[in-house]
Amino acid sequence: MLLSCYQDDFLEAGCDEAGRGCLAGPVFAAAVILPRGFVLDGLNDSKQLTHEQRDALRPVIEKEALAWAVASCDHEEIDRINILNASFLAMHRAIEKLHTQPGYLIIDGNRFKAYPQIPHSCIIKGDGKFLNIAAASILAKTHRDEFMSNLHDEYPHYNWQQNKGYPTIAHRRAVIEIGLSPFHRKTFNVSDPQLELFAKNA
Fold it and tell me: Going by C-beta distance under 8 Å and a sequence separation of 6 or more, which residues neighbour residue 70?
């Protein structure tokens, strides 16, 4: 069972990101402050939920949270400062957008660049341990999925509506055959030699 918060002394925001491992598109991050004693059936790590479950939970989280915000870093920023720093920056932007300032942050993962004047703790697999991080994981994931689905209409060859920019074999083959889109991360390894050889001989 997920816990409502990590500590009880300060108003707490849970933070998580989505899209770090993608070949294309931004990395999204969310920060969520939930009410004390918040309960929501089915709320869990977004990776453990179906697309339909995440979409059903998103409006409830956005309505019931004391505060929530979503922000991103685009593919050009990712190429310039690397994906880890871009993930931290996206989280900072989400925290900055909160209309209620938290007194404490808990971050999914084992690393974070401290946000000015707000203490934090990093929680490995925190999205499966704390409700506020789980809520942030769902908002980051659903907002990013929506962004990539909209991009799909402009670049249908990469099938972003389905893969959301992640490195599926079909996505990598499309890059080999068509080339990079303006939204691909140029510093990421899009393909491997065996896949390239297979594509050329297909």
Answer: 28, 29, 30, 94, 97, 139, 140, 143
